[in-house]
Amino acid sequence: MSSHEISEAEEKLPEARGAESAVRPVDDPFADPGLPPHEHRKQDIDERAAKRSERTVALLFTVSMVATIAFIAAYVAIPVDRYIYVFPIGHISALNFALGVTLGIALFTIGAGAVHWARTLMSDEEIADERHPIEASPEVKSKVLEEFHTGAKESGFGRRKLARNTLFGALALVPLSGIVLLRDLGPLPGTKLRHTKWARGKRLMNYNTMQPLRPEDISVGSLTFAMPEGMSEDQHDFQTEIAKAALMLVRLQPENIKDKRELDWSHEGIVAFSKICTHVGCPINLYEQQTHHVLCPCHQSTFDLSDGGRVIFGPAGHALPQLRIRANDQGYLEAMGDFPEPVGPAYWERG
């Protein structure tokens, strides 16, 4: 380094710059520097700019509502086994992709709308306040309440109705995404619980021999189990359907039948009732000949088969449904329709 360059460098030192450039000590190094002057935003002084910001916020909230509706529509419409190719991820589930995208947009636009509202429409003026004791005095509480009302007023929440209402709409729709997911708790039953395999003209098949039943096959005092014609144990839905269609047959003396409809729906004293208990759905298989009562072995609900299958003991809530039967031209017992009401336990959709 030359002597000229050294002299220039020395001139830049604090001692060489003179008293005006020297670092001067201060009395209080921790003094409050204060706040810089507040700078107004464009939205603070131009109402048209504020309206544009409000419309932007409303647009973001509206997009959130549309995305939530799209989430629900995708959940209902897209099959679970459908796959699509998305570059560069590859083949993925179309349902998962649609649900992720729509729910992400719904949540993101709510957040983006709230942030944009706060940054452009709410007051951004900084206020300095002294620290106060943890226990608030009445004066402080009054001041906080006053500041809250002032903040609420300055936020434009009451005045910016378009942004406020679309925010309410977006927040109201987003939870529907979670409610719709409750559908996966199980398949919707529809009307399946109201109908069985019994139909007009279906013969009564002996559950043990798989042969069609004739009136002479059923003697007085005996209990016989039957199922609809056309069912077999090798069918994939056999257990589901037999749980609703299982039937028990008892032959009574016609004069012992107390209920008129039961007598009309019987054939030569043969009455057909659902085998499924109306308490929790257990199969009934205990019969008392002298009293014509049947007993559920699970919780001892007892039904009178001579009086419309009504409950005479136990926790069952209603009588056993009766199936109307007759003998066809070939002499076989057949159904004259389905049960008039759902079999088994009651459920909340039951009308």
From TrEMBL:
Any one GO MF annotation of this record: 2 iron, 2 sulfur cluster binding
Coiled coil: none
Membrane topology qualifier: Multi-pass membrane protein
Compartments it resides in: Cell membrane
InterPro entries in the cross-refs: QcrA_N (IPR045603), Rieske_2Fe-2S (IPR017941), Rieske_2Fe-2S_sf (IPR036922), Rieske_Fe-S_prot (IPR014349), Rieske_Fe-S_prot_C (IPR005805)
Source domain of life: Bacteria
Keywords from the UniProt entry: 2Fe-2S, Cell membrane, Disulfide bond, Electron transport, Iron, Iron-sulfur, Membrane, Metal-binding, Oxidoreductase, Respiratory chain, Transmembrane, Transmembrane helix, Transport
Domain Rieske span(s) in chain numbering: 244-334
Name of one Pfam family that matches: Rieske
Cellular component per GO, a single term: plasma membrane
Membrane-spanning parts: 57-78, 84-115, 162-182
Cofactor(s) needed: [2Fe-2S] cluster
Region (Disordered): 1-46
Compositional bias annotation for Basic and acidic residues: 1-18, 37-46
SUPFAM superfamilies in the cross-refs: ISP domain
Oligomeric and partner information: The cytochrome bc1 complex is composed of a cytochrome b (QcrB), the Rieske iron-sulfur protein (QcrA) and a diheme cytochrome c (QcrC) subunit.
Assigned protein family: Belongs to the Rieske iron-sulfur protein family.
Function: Iron-sulfur subunit of the cytochrome bc1 complex, an essential component of the respiratory electron transport chain required for ATP synthesis. The bc1 complex catalyzes the oxidation of menaquinol and the reduction of cytochrome c in the respiratory chain. The bc1 complex operates through a Q-cycle mechanism that couples electron transfer to generation of the proton gradient that drives ATP synthesis.
Protein name from the UniProt record: Cytochrome bc1 complex Rieske iron-sulfur subunit
Organism: Streptomyces malaysiensis subsp. samsunensis
